[in-house]
Write a structure and sequence with these properties.
By secondary structure, the protein is α/β, with parallel strands linked by helices. The chain has helices spanning 5-16, 19-28, 38-47, 56-65, 78-90, 107-125, 149-168, 183-194, 207-213, 218-228, 256-265, 288-302; strands spanning 35-37, 71-72, 97-99, 131-134, 172-175, 201-206, 232-237, 240-241, 244-245, 271-274. The strands form two sheets. It has an eight-stranded parallel beta sheet with strand order 2-1-10-7-6-5-4-3. The protein has a two-stranded antiparallel ribbon with strand order 8-9.
């Protein structure tokens, strides 16, 4: 029987209203405090000739001076997780989500990598972590190498397996991208999203990496929201002007006011994570604490309708 466009749209609408996705929307309404990635602090400290977390107590105190109470650290081992939790606990800083690297396109490395992620999740769960964000490693960081079709199939299978294992721990896996996943028609990005189960894998929408990876296209940003909005459990929030990351969050290349309104219209309440990093040619007028105070207030104001 020939399938029509109307049949497809009706089927898609039914899927969008499926019990699972409706329950996922309900789960997304759980209250997360606005958080901040450690990556932006690393970039600010580096600009100042300092090293983030070299002195954990001093770094934690700087973080608190910005007004924020929740953090998303990049954690590499379960031992790092325990050390991080020790410092955060003494300073009353929450950790609703963590970012963990993974190697999932290579069958010889995937099992070991997944076990590392799970060991970190088991430790961070004790401190209240609900989301593990992972960006499966590319062929080369900063490069343009493309994974083969076989590697993409292997990767998607392992992302789904990892999500299933984390789900058993009561933790949600959030798939994250940088810009390289949008090369070659965004084949890597779409393959993961189209070949993993929404029950096992949610989406960490790093808004500016989607923007930059699509040749600085705001159209692409909003199209991705339309395509995968129902799977968004977390946002990484960053702004730029003329393609260059700004020192603080505010008006710029991406219309975040519109973005927040569309989230509200879709009844989405993702975990908000500030990741306003600095790079070459970013204005240099303030330190990390000053910048993050501004970020925190502006993000609260911009996204207040979904908080």
């Amino acid at each position: 029987m020939k399938s029509t466009r109307r049949d497809f749209l009706n089927g898609f609408a039914a899927f969008a209203l499926s019990p699972f996705l409706l329950s996922l929307r309900s789960e997304q309404k759980q209250s997360f405090p606005i958080s901040c990635s450690t990556y932006d602090w690393i970039t600010f400290y580096k600009r100042q000739g300092r090293t983030w977390w070299q002195d954990p107590e001093a770094s934690a105190q700087d973080f608190l001076r910005s007004g924020m109470k929740a953090i998303e650290p990049n954690i590499g081992t379960s031992a790092e997780a325990r050390q991080m939790i020790d410092v955060l606990g003494r300073n009353d800083i929450k950790m609703p989500s963590v970012y963990v690297n993974s190697m999932l396109h290579d069958a010889s490395e995937a099992e070991k990598s997944m076990q590392v992620v799970l060991s970190i999740a088991e430790e961070t769960k004790k401190y209240g972590t609900k989301i593990v964000v992972t960006n499966p490693s590319p062929i080369e960081w900063g490069g343009k190498g493309l994974k083969s079709d076989a590697q993409l199939i292997e990767q998607a299978r392992n992302v789904d397996r990892l999500g299933s294992a984390l789900k058993k721990l009561g933790i949600t896996l959030a798939y994250h991208t940088h810009d390289m996943e949008l090369l070659a028609g965004a084949r890597e990005f779409h393959h993961v999203m189209q070949n993993t189960s929404p029950e096992n894998v949610s989406f960490c929408f790093d808004v500016h990496w989607i923007y930059r990876g699509s040749q600085n296209s705001q159209v692409a940003v909003f199209d991705v929201l339309k395509l995968y909005g129902n799977r968004v459990i977390e946002l990484h929030i960053r702004q730029s002007v003329n393609g260059i990351w700004t020192e603080t969050f505010g008006e710029g290349d991406i219309d975040y006011d519109r973005f927040a309104k569309e989230l509200k219209d879709m009844n989405l309440h993702p975990h908000l994570v500030i990741e306003q990093c600095v790079e070459a040619n970013t204005p240099d007028t303030m330190d990390a604490v000053q910048a993050h105070r501004i970020d925190f207030e502006k993000v609260k104001k911009t996204f207040q309708q979904i908080l």
